[in-house]
Specification:
heterotrimer, A alpha/beta (309), B alpha+beta (543), C alpha/beta (249), B: 543 residues, alpha+beta, FAD/NAD(P)-binding domain, D-Amino Acid Oxidase, Chain A, domain 2, eight-stranded mixed β-sheet, seven-stranded mixed β-sheet, 13 helices, 24 strands, C: 249 residues, alpha/beta, Rossmann fold, nine-stranded mixed β-sheet, 7 helices, 29% helix, globular, binds flavin-adenine dinucleotide, binds iron/sulfur cluster
């Protein structure tokens, strides 16, 4: 009765998504092992061992795993599966790429993007882009990907043993040629941990940048926009958040001078914490904001930047 | 964009898959199975742009598909209880059924989703071999030597800038020996045809209303399938015409709607907010306790009646259904006449084709329609609208009721045939003569704002296309629409398309639910509605 | 080179779905259905490869009800050469079952490349392509934003968290399409008409010998809990403090 988590990392550091998947995995009620797979991942395995409540860390270190390709990753997981009742990964691009293969090879159905653990075999997951929640029950071996915005990260406090694994050989039918990580200093809107979004209230393209950039820089946040801001030419098309723009679910979403029309909410309502800054206390955005600040954005946003120092 | 279009030829090309277009297509194939009949429909699917009450009078269907009652249809709920109520702010006064003119009775009628009826008619039509192509708008009337020879579908993939994008696809020329315009109220090609051939020269101008509709899922305790209720009075002032309808369908669904006549004078009036307010009436809100709103939509409705019917036939085709304005206003019904006009027109077209004719004017069509069931239906109620316009709702309705009784009992009217006062775009008065109206805040449970309403209409348009709402003269819009009339488009548009932001006119064309109100009500007739890329617009479900 | 594109019929992306009050699912009666948008990207890419002379035939396949044939017609109208309808009235077909059916179809069709959508916008499972690749033992590249075919191999650029990466896959291979792969074309009227006459073969999971019984039990489907209003803070300083407290900075 043990759960195995596939750790998310970038080859250098352990990603927080792992600690979130751990929170979900612990809810299954069984001891949890973490698999750190990659090349030269000693430090990452050590970091995983420190997470609270981890019973063991497995370290699979091989060159064939360096680029986290789905084929060797899933082969590795399948080779370990006999010892586990549940295989879990955060729903990151690696997790989503790998786990369905594991499920297929084990002849079970994966439960994708688990947003809540109801019971060790029963889960909630969003469907229809979050417009409905399905409660599903699985039987037999579990293969789960975890929606990371739905869980908080488990903190440190453990000291798990680390065990090195032998890595199965790879058939080499798929080969990594190269990567091009976003050159921009700002994170991508779709995957950002923090999003700062501006609406029509910003008034011009210059102001949009002038007011929002310092805050985004301070928070290492991506910048989004409402349709009204995009239509008015203050922001680029691909910055639009909402029904017809991007759907984002960051940890923190700061809506600045955005009224909160339902079409905008459709793109950010699954964010963990929503902050609204708007001069109209009746603006609908306050109905969904965890923290609201009523007043003129042109003074409040600079003040917030200062307060974050 | 001037490159030549691909051409295809048909016997009959029909624009619009509403009840009129579908009925015409079905009758054509019933009469001459070998005809090639094509329907283009701008909605993404048949029915996705259809919005109607709807209590239907089955007289049209009885003629089109006499055994429809034996078939599997979406016509399930017969009207069992018919109420008419006068509202004041706090109270409701039911009118006893015996004083209601029989012309307004709903006995023998059915409560339906007209969209679903159209979907069903489309399967019947396809089974007969009609080609129906949803997602394609008739964008241009093809006229050669004074004869309508077909329609062109819109170009696809033109970008916001007006330049063709990478996926540009030129529209097609769909040629027909006859072209039937079945676009419903205020059709964009119909408008061109009326102008081109002077079809409205001898008739009174058309009058309109804007009709709203919401579908709610109500609690069992509040559901009375078969109940039909109409109201007049509050929240509208007596000088503003209009009223509500509440129809209880199957599956715990209740349709509530509201029609506001577009000849209102006060530019501050917001038909949308009047509708929202209506639902808070003590005699109405109970029905919606614990209920959930499922959908929303709006569409203009023609109200001019008998005296406004234009000439129907033109060289190479004809207007059918609401494109010609066959709505019976006191009954708020037009679908039966839409079907009947489709049938009668199809019979004339089939006869002409059988005689080897094409591209001519169907000479007897107008007389046949006026002398037939449609003419009779509309003639009896021809004075209702003018009386309401002249005397206000309360007294006007009294006179109209009296007039309808006279028509029923004696076959004649005391008033002869009254003319309409002014076209709807000319009735607005300068804002300076009126006070802004302070509408109550929406609670998000029973009453809503425009944007959350548009959301559940499923409306969308491909963003990267030129706006399909053409403002001819922006300077005039500012000098008149804004400065004189205080921006009525921001209030009459049911979808929040128009905004005045710091003196500039913002047109959120993506929101448009294709109701055509702006095309009708803009005080300077400065807004022209043209079809957007096919498939854009609302995605109504069960409307 | 022959390309197989599996396509799924889903509730149209513009439709506001309604969860049935009894929790039994999402109401799809009278609702507009369309091809899964990512599958349009997949077909488009296949067509471009054919038009570039790289591919010779584009075959589309769906697993689904009678009505799914409409989706196949839509794909044929875009330009696919022929279609296979694996017909079943099963109300719920899980990605694992679809992948097994596809594997069986592939056994007889023998395509060199399978392009799927990255996920279906109804179930949002994001599994079918990966499962198919694993079952076939073919290499995979998910979330593709660019495809370049070489000899015996292909290079695929994938959208991953934080950027892009490029893989070289030996053919045959399985690829799943992301939105940025291309912009799907419009089906023109003449092509829609022609599509009615293109070949559409029918088979069934039983004929293919695949068990499609679901493995997961759906207990209920509910509406997501709405967000509720939080607190109004008095100043930027208070906001900064609250955010630190909430641990999101
Ligand atoms: C089919 C469809 C699709 C759509 N898709 C999207 C979408 O994807 N994304 C999207 O965002 N919208 C979308 N919309 C549009 C949406 O309905 C709204 O119109 C839009 O979100 C409004 O943007 P906004 O809040 O920036 O502008 P506004 O509604 O104009 O709001 C501006 C806000 O700023 C506040 N404000 C003004 N000045 C200040 C100041 N100095 N300090 C502080 N606050 C100030 C005001 O009080 C107001 O609340 C869509 C609409 C439709 C119909
Ligand atoms: C709120 C409201 C309530 C009503 N209630 C009732 C009622 O209870 N009972 C009743 O009998 N009647 C009612 N009516 C009237 C009834 O809906 C109409 O009379 C009837 O729908 C007219 O049918 P039609 O075929 O002429 O046009 P429509 O039903 O309007 O159909 C026209 C079709 O053509 C399409 N179209 C338009 N232009 C183009 C183009 N250029 N290219 C391609 N396609 C195009 C449209 O998308 C639409 O699908 C109501 C109307 C409204 C607005
Ligand atoms: S823009 Fe015109 S046609 Fe469109 S919804 Fe508004 S008023 Fe109706």
């Amino acid at each position: 009765m043990t759960t195995l988590i596939l750790a998310e990392h970038d080859g250098k550091t352990l990603n927080e998504a792992t600690a979130k998947a751990l929170t979900a995995a612990k809810a299954l009620g069984a001891p949890v092992h973490i698999l750190v797979a990659g090349h030269e991942v000693g430090a990452i395995a050590a970091a995983a061992a420190k997470l609270d409540g981890v019973a063991k860390v497995l370290s699979a270190d091989a060159e064939s795993l360096a680029h986290q390709l789905a084929e060797p990753f899933s082969a590795l997981l399948v080779s370990l599966a006999g010892n586990y009742d549940a295989i879990v990964a955060p729903a990151t691009s690696t997790g989503k790429n790998t786990l369905p293969r594991v499920a297929a090879l084990l002849d079970v159905m994966q439960v994708s993007e688990v947003s809540k653990v109801i019971a060790p075999d029963t889960f909630e997951r969003p469907i229809y882009a979050g417009n409905a929640i399905e409660t599903v029950q699985a039987s037999g071996k579990l293969v789960l990907t975890i929606r990371i915005s739905a869980f908080t990260a488990t903190g440190e406090g453990g000291n798990a043993p680390i065990e090195a694994l032998a890595v199965p050989a790879d058939d080499g039918r798929s080969r990594w040629l190269g990567a091009e990580l976003s050159a921009s200093v700002r994170p991508e809107l779709a995957g950002a941990r923090i999003v700062v979004s501006g609406g029509r209230a910003l008034g011009s393209a210059e102001k949009f940048d002038e007011v929002l950039a310092p805050l985004a820089d301070k928070l290492n946040a991506a910048i989004g926009a409402s349709r009204a801001a995009v239509d008015a030419g203050y922001a680029a098309n691909d910055m639009q958040v909402g029904q017809t723009g991007k759907v984002v679910a960051p940890e923190l979403y700061i809506a600045i001078g955005i009224s909160g029309a339902i079409q905008h909410l459709a793109g950010m309502k699954d964010s963990r914490i929503v902050v609204a800054i708007n001069k109209d206390a009746d603006a609908p955005i306050f109905q969904v904001a965890d923290f609201g600040l009523v007043g003129d954005l042109f003074t409040l946003v600079p003040a917030l930047v200062k307060a974050l120092d | 964009m001037t490159e030549p279009r691909e051409e295809m030829e048909f016997d009959v090309v029909i624009v619009g898959a509403g009840p009129s277009g579908l009925a015409a297509a079905i009758r054509l194939k019933q009469l001459s199975p070998d005809l090639s009949v094509l329907i283009v429909e701008k909605g993404a699917e048949v029915g996705s742009h259809i919005i109607s009450g709807a209590v239907i009078d089955p007289s049209g269907l009885d003629e089109l598909i006499p055994d429809w009652r034996e078939r599997e249809t979406p016509i399930k709920t017969a009207v069992t209880d018919d109420r008419f109520v006068w509202l004041t702010e706090k109270s409701a006064f039911p009118l006893p059924n015996f004083i209601m003119p029989p012309l307004m009775s709903n006995h023998g009628n059915y409560i339906v989703s007209l969209a679903n009826v159209c979907k069903w008619l489309a399967t019947e039509a396809e089974a007969l071999g009609v080609d129906i192509y949803p997602g394609f708008a008739g964008a241009e009337l093809l006229v050669e030597d004074g004869v309508v020879v077909g329609v062109a579908t819109g170009d696809m993939g033109i970008e916001k800038s007006g330049q063709p994008g990478p996926n540009f696809a030129r529209g097609m020329a769909l040629k027909g020996k006859y072209v039937l315009l079945a676009e419903g109220v205020r059709g964009s090609l119909t408008k061109r045809a009326i102008a081109e051939f002077g079809l409205a020269k001898e008739s009174d101008f058309q009058k309109y209303g804007i009709g709203f509709k919401e579908i709610w899922q109500v609690a069992d305790a509040n559901h009375r399938p078969g109940l039909v209720q109409h109201t007049l009075g509050w929240p509208l002032q007596d000088t503003v015409g209009g009223g509500s309808y509440i129809y209880h369908l199957e599956d715990n669904q209740v349709a509530i709607g509201f029609v506001v006549h577009l000849n209102y004078k006060n530019p501050y009036l917001s038909p949308f907010d009047e509708f929202q307010r209506l639902k808070t009436h003590p005699a109405i809100k109970g029905t919606f306790e614990g209920a959930k709103r499922l959908s929303y939509g709006a569409r203009a409705i023609s109200e001019g009646g008998y005296q406004s019917i234009p000439k129907l036939a033109f060289p190479g085709g004809a207007l059918i259904g609401d494109a010609a304005g066959f709505v019976n206003l006191p009954r708020i019904k037009g679908s039966h006449n839409a079907v009947l006009s489709g049938i009668v027109t199809a019979e004339h077209v089939a006869a002409a084709l059988a005689a080897g004719r094409s591209g001519d004017t169907l000479a007897d069509l107008d007389a046949a329609l006026r002398a037939g069931a449609i003419g009779k239906d509309l003639h009896k109620v021809r004075n209702v609208k003018p009386l309401l316009s002249r005397f206000g709702t309360l007294f006007g309705m009294g006179l109209a009721g009296f007039d309808m009784w006279c028509n029923t009992l004696f076959g004649a009217s005391l008033f002869g045939t009254l003319r309409h006062g002014k076209p709807d775009h000319a009735t607005l008065e300068p804002a300076a003569l009126h006070q802004p109206i302070d509408y109550p805040k929406r609670d998000g449970m029973l009453t809503f704002d425009r944007l959350s309403s548009v959301f559940i209409s499923g409306t969308n348009h491909e963003e990267n296309q030129p706006p399909h709402l053409h403002v001819a003269d922006l300077a005039l819009q500012k000098a008149s629409e804004l400065d004189v009339f205080a921006g009525p488009s921001t209030r009459y548009c049911p979808a929040g398309v128009y905004e005045w932001v710091d003196g500039s006119y913002v047109i959120n064309a993506q929101n448009c639910v294709h109701c055509k109100t702006c095309d009708i009500k803009d005080p300077n007739q400065n807004i022209d509605w043209v079809p957007p890329e096919g498939g854009g617009g609302p995605n109504y479900v069960n409307m | 080179m022959k390309i197989l594109v599996p396509v799924k019929r889903v509730v149209d992306a513009n439709v506001k779905i309604r969860v049935k009050p009894d929790g039994s699912g999402v109401d799809t009666a009278n609702v507009k259905m369309s091809m899964n948008p990512f599958d349009e990207n997949a077909i488009e890419e296949a067509l471009r490869l054919r038009e570039a002379g790289t591919a010779t035939e584009v075959v589309i396949v769906t697993v689904g009800s009678e009505k799914s044939a409409e989706t196949l017609r839509a794909g044929l109208a875009m330009g696919a050469d022929r279609a296979i309808h694996v017909k079943t009235d099963a109300p719920r077909i899980e990605p694992l079952a679809v992948a097994k059916v596809l594997k069986a179809v592939i056994a007889s069709e023998a395509p060199d490349l399978v392009i799927l959508g990255k996920q279906a916008i109804d179930d949002d499972s994001n599994q079918t392509g990966q499962m198919l690749s694993a079952l076939l033992g073919w290499p995979q590249a998910t979330f593709a934003s660019k495809i370049v075919i070489g000899t015996g191999s292909m290079d695929v650029t994938r959208e991953i968290d934080g950027g892009l990466e490029t893989l070289r896959l030996m053919l045959p291979a399985v690829v799943t399409a992301d939105l940025r792969l291309n912009e799907p074309r419009y089906a023109s009227l003449p092509n829609i008409m022609k599509a009615k006459k293109k070949p559409l073969d029918e088979t069934s999971p039983e004929t293919l010998g695949v068990d499609i019984a679901p493995r997961l039990t759906v207990l209920k489907t509910t509406e997501p809990a709405g967000r509720t209003a939080g607190i109004i803070v008095a100043s930027a300083e208070e906001l900064a403090a609250k955010l630190k407290q909430a641990g999101v900075l």
